[in-house]
Amino acid sequence: MSKEINILNSNKEDIKDAESLKQLEFINKAKEYVSSMEKELGRKLTACVVTFGCQMNARDSEKLVAILKLAGYEESDSENADFVIYNTCTVRDNADQRVLGRLGQCGSYKKKNPHMKIAICGCMMQEQSSVEKIQKSYRFVDLIFGTHNIYKFAELLCTCLESDRMIIDIWKDTDKIVEDLPVLRKYPFKSGVNIMFGCNNFCTYCIVPYVRGRERSRSPKEIIRECEKLVADGVKEVMLLGQNVNSYGNDFKEDDPNRITFPQLIEEVCKVDGLERVRFMTPHPKDFSDELLDVIARNSKIARHIHLPLQSGNTEILRRMNRKYTKDDYLNLVYKIREKLPEVAITTDIIVGFPGETAADVDDTIDVVKKAQFDNAFTFIYSKRTGTPAAGFDNQVPENEVKENFDRLLKVVQETARSQSEKLSGKTESVLVEGVNEHDTTLLTGRLSNNTLVHFAGDESLIGNIIDVTLDECHGFYFMGHRA
Ligand code: 5AD
Ligand code: SF4
């Protein structure tokens, strides 16, 4: 649940974008509905936002929370609330299944609370088959919208509060970027900042280009303005977000004065006074430039962490994934990073079980893991997504084979991650204190610049500060430490 009350961009004076001003009017209208329902029921109304998936969705949810709060709802962690919204992910089938499970449960709450409104939005709703499933089997849902019109949430909320019918508003695509929507951050001291939306890469297994549309970059001025506002509001660390941050700005016209590259943008962001750490997610290996490495090398504010999705270590599988690099291209890039920036942690994403993948192909992936010495890797079992080219490929791999390969890979991933982490043992590093440890409240949890987690004894008042911590004991992917 968000702790702070301060909602960025809730004042008309701050807002330049006409669409945002319109949405602010809808928030006021929603507020009237909420307050009259409060009078009718004799109690406050609650709202719960449930987020699935990536950092982009997390950031979108912060906007949903802000609008609901401004409309007068109290935020709740429980789905037994007066307004519940699921912000969905569809990158793998298990994400879809989890959403539907939770939605079913929510339907049973609604039977006991007839005032309840249930909404569902995000990537899964950009797929027609999912919307049809909700229309058919989850009739109790009140509002469905997609990724392209999330900026209209206040307006859709009003429509939903006015009507007893299921409201569905899905757009195929958009070229619109709406600035200045209200947002309520989950953490007061760190924030995601979208620099672009959509993806043009069409990796053959991936649904994202179909549900998030084509690449659209925000103007550098707006990005810097947002970072400055965030800093003024107490933020120390930003994460620049995009599906392929290296192609930032490619969609601007040649003669557009806004046209700058990602390395130029990140360097500008580093100049924002008071900002202490800058992260970015996700770069595509095919577009990772020497210019970016130089910028990281000369800007100590840029976090010592590069997430560089590998997907597979086999060149033929990579070709069929449409990744546009070979095993050697990838390894050479890793060697270059390790040479130029030895303190940088490299993490990755790997898919096992892509159509036609053999045990020998997985050996290539394991070979890359060993040679690259990843600091961490997220390993996924291939999930067939309807509408993607790979869904139609021959030779879908049987489940038991996938499982065997997956386990073999995971073992090596864990070994390399541990041996990489252990290298930090005994060192003192600067740590952004993120919160009280969930399992032991005498401990605090923080993150190193290279993204490693550390738990150490300390007082809650340190949360949001960057302090020095000595890393005593390595426990695989996290450390126990003490304040230096
Ligand atoms: N099946 C399994 N994993 C997938 N990813 C994307 N699409 C799929 C899929 N169809 C993984 C990729 C990507 C991460 C965000 O999700 O590894 O980098
Ligand atoms: Fe999906 Fe590939 Fe785009 Fe990443 S780069 S979002 S994996 S299509």
Characterise this structure.
With 484 residues, the protein is α/β, with parallel strands linked by helices. It folds into four domains: 158 residues, Methylthiotransferase, N-terminal domain (Rossmann fold, 3-Layer(aba) Sandwich); 117 residues, Transcription Regulator spoIIAA, CATH 3.30.750; 92 residues, Transcription Regulator spoIIAA, CATH 3.30.750; 56 residues, OB fold (Dihydrolipoamide Acetyltransferase, E2P) (Beta Barrel), CATH 2.40.50.140. The chain is built from 13 helices and 19 strands. The strands form five sheets. The protein has a six-stranded parallel beta sheet with strand order 2-1-3-4-5-6, with helices on both faces. Strands 15-16-17-19-18 form a five-stranded mixed beta barrel. The longest helix has 24 residues. The mean pLDDT is 94. The site of 5'-deoxyadenosine has 12 residues, from strand 13.
Protein traits:
single chain; 36% helix; five-stranded mixed barrel; 484 residues; Transcription Regulator spoIIAA; 4 domains; six-stranded parallel sheet; 20% strand; alpha/beta; binds iron/sulfur cluster; binds 5'-deoxyadenosine; Rossmann fold
- Quickly count the domains: 4
Sheet with the most strands, sense and barrel status? 6 strands, parallel
Gross morphology: globular
Q: If you compute it from the alpha carbons, what radius of gyration comes out, rounded to the nearest whole angstrom? A: 23 Å
> Which hetero compounds are present in the coordinates?
5'-deoxyadenosine, iron/sulfur cluster
CATH topology of the largest domain: Rossmann fold
Mean pLDDT: 94
- CATH architecture classification name of the largest domain: 3-Layer(aba) Sandwich
Strand order across the biggest sheet? 2-1-3-4-5-6
Text of the CATH class of the largest domain: Alpha Beta
Q: What is the rounded distance between the termini?
A: 31 Å
Uncertain runs with pLDDT below 50, 5 residues or more?
A: none
CATH superfamily of the largest domain: Methylthiotransferase, N-terminal domain
- Quaternary state of this entry equals single chain
Q: Roughly what percent helix?
A: 25-40%
The proportion of strand residues reads 15-25%
Classification by helices and strands: alpha/beta
Q: Tally of extended strands?
A: 19
Q: Count of helical segments?
A: 13
